[in-house]
Input
Amino acid sequence: MTAPGRTTAAPHTLEVADGVFAYVQPDGGWCVNNAGIVRDGSSAALVDTAATVARARALRTAVERLTAAPPEVLVNTHHHGDHFFGNQVFAPRSLVVAHELARVEMAQAGLGLTAMWPDVDWGEIDLTLPVLTFRDRITLHTGALRLELMHVGPAHTTNDVVVWVPERRVLFSGDVLLSGATPYCLMGSIEGSLRAVERLRGLGATTIVPGHGPIGGPELLDATRDYLEWVRSLARDGTAAGLTALEIARAADLGPFSELLDSERLVGNLHRACAELDARDDELGRPLDVVASFREMVEFHGRLPDCHA
Output
């Protein structure tokens, strides 16, 4: 489903470092995510899949062009369907790995994402959950390359995992970092995201493959920080003035963030930021009403948000 005034291009694969590839799906908006392939010798690993069966099969074709054998491991960076619905195309030949909370939330959410955009051709999705889960961090080995999986949530969600390839200085950030698209923290944490950004900065990545949008570098850390700090400031001032999240969003001047895709996410981000103004650390990431927030995003946008999946 393509929105008026927005176009999509075919997915493409880029080698961002020796043996490390980004599978980029333009335009990077709702449910149009990136994936990654790491290859060394006969070993390969995959980072994330895609939202629809058709997109996941296209990803599989791209992977087959790079490696003769199926990826030994498939990492899901979090529980949102655009990053794991395609697991069925690779499992069981690929071992699916994710954070322990991701498996729980995948099972709880089920195929709920498909109801938000009923006109999308999702295909016959067989919910395929991770087989191996972990709590804090785990290291995988693809040939001589290390893949360091680190839980950095709550950020975009409670269960965000990034994949760091230190020998190549490449970071697969999942949706903790987006490129050219509005960050979205309703199911995670604004404060937690800011902490995650600084933690990721310490890795010293030269190449960042974001969850959505074009490949970047450390500037994606700065852009994400700047947006989230702005949202936090809006929430603080708006709450003091007695405004709701939707009212704050309507009154906001997007300024330097006006060119980001899917600006309606501001409403959801403000719900999260307002809830966190006086929150303790153990309250970050607590569940909010996702459905009610999405309805307000639709109201703010004037129609259903655009989804090209």
